[in-house]
C-alpha cells in the first residue's frame, strides 16, 4: 500500500482527514476505534441527584464511605454467641443461656465464662463472645445449651468494617450506577451523589425518500426507521435525545441542521448520505464547518462512516442502511458516547467462541458482523446459526438475532462446525 494510514499520534483531525488518500478498504475496525478515542474527553458538568434519580447515571466523584460496613461485629448465622475458650476440643460442654441478640435488638450485657447468648443472623455479637455456634450444632434445654467439639475460634462472625472501612472509597468516579450501586450507596446512608450531566445527543435522518411515521407514503418513498432505532439506542444508553427529524438532501437545509444541532448538543449523529457521490456536498459542507473525516471502514455492514467535530460537538455520520446504522452505532458510537458520558473504564462488549452450525460466505479483507442466533441444544451445548439473508437493509435480521457473529478481517468462508466469535446483544442492545 503506498498511501499513508492515519497516524495515531495525530493531534488534530486535519492530520488524519485526507480520506481520499486512503485505500478505500484499508481502515481496519480497531484502528478507527483508536483514532476516535483520541479525540474524546468526558463532559465536565456535574449534578447532585438523589440516589433513586441516579440510576443509569455516571458517578463524577468517588463515593467515600462515612461508616464502617458492617457497622458492628455481627452473626452470619442463627445460633449462639459463645466464648471459644469455654468449648472443649473433645466432648460436650454445657453453657447457661443469659439472653438474646436479634437483628436490631442487641443484647445489653456481656457474655461471661460459662455463658451463651441466643443470636440471630445480623444480630450484634455481645462483648465477651468471640465465636458463633450454629443452632444445628447445639442442643437447647431448660435455659442451657450443650455444644460438641470441632468449632473454630471467630467462626460465623462478620467483623465491623470487613466489607468497607470508614473513609475508604466505596465507589469510584466513572462508575455507572446500576441497581447494585444504588443499594450500596443507600447502605452507607448517603442520599445524594455527584454525577455527570446527561450527554446531549442531537440526531437527524437525511434522505429525499424518507417519510416520518404518521404520514402516507408517496411513490418511491419509505418510512424513516433509523431515527426511531437511534432514539431507542440513545435512550437505552441514558442520553438526553434531541430528535431533529428528517432533513432533505439539500446543502442549505443540511447546513442549517448541522449548525442548529452542533449549537445545542454534545454529539450530533446523522444517518444516510455518507456514501460516495451522494455525500459529496455533505463532505464539503462539513469540511467548511468543522473537522470531519470520511472513512471507508474495512467492515460489513457499515462501510462508510464519518467522524469529526463541528464546533464543540462531536459528529458521527452513519450510513443509511438500517442494519449498518445499528452495527456502526454498537461498534463505534456506543463506546464513544460512554466515554463522553464519563464512564471509566469502558468495558468492551464481551465476545466468546462457539461452533457455527451454518455455512457462512465471507470475503477476506474486512470484518463482518453477521446476525446470529445463539442457542443451546438438549445437552446444554451452545452453538450459533445465522439469521438468514444478511442484506444491510434487512432490519428484521437484527430483530431475529440475539448476537453478532464477528468474522475477523482475514477470515474466509466458514464451514459448518467451525468455531466463530460471537458478541451477545442482550443487555447491550
Ligand atoms: P444512503 O446512505 O443515504 O445512500 O442510504 C442507503 C440506503 O439506506 C438507501 O436504501 C436508503 O433509502 C436507506 N435509508 C437511508 N436512511 C434511512 C432511514 N432513515 N430509514 C430507513 N432507511 C434509510
Ligand atoms: Mg440518502
End-to-end Cα distance, whole Å, is: 37 Å
Tell me the number of strands.
26
Give the neighbour order of strands across the main sheet. 7-4-6-5-9-8
CATH hierarchy class name of the largest domain: Alpha Beta
Number of domains: 4
Mass-distribution shape:
elongated
- Please tally the helical runs, counting DSSP H or I stretches of 4 or more residues: 7
Q: Major beta sheet, specifics?
A: 6 strands, mixed
CATH fold field value of the largest domain: Molybdenum Cofactor Biosythetic Enzyme, Chain A
**Rg of Cα set:** 30 Å
List all distinct small molecules, including ions and cofactors, that are bound in this structure.
Answer: adenosine monophosphate, magnesium ion
> Can you tell me the residue ranges where pLDDT is under 50 for at least 5 consecutive residues?
1-10, 17-25
Query: How much of the polypeptide forms β-strand, as a percent range?
Result: 25-35%
CATH superfamily annotation of the largest domain:
MoaB/Mog-like domain
Secondary structure class reads: alpha+beta
CATH A-level architecture of the largest domain? 3-Layer(aba) Sandwich
Average pLDDT over all residues: 91
Share of helical residues = 10-25%
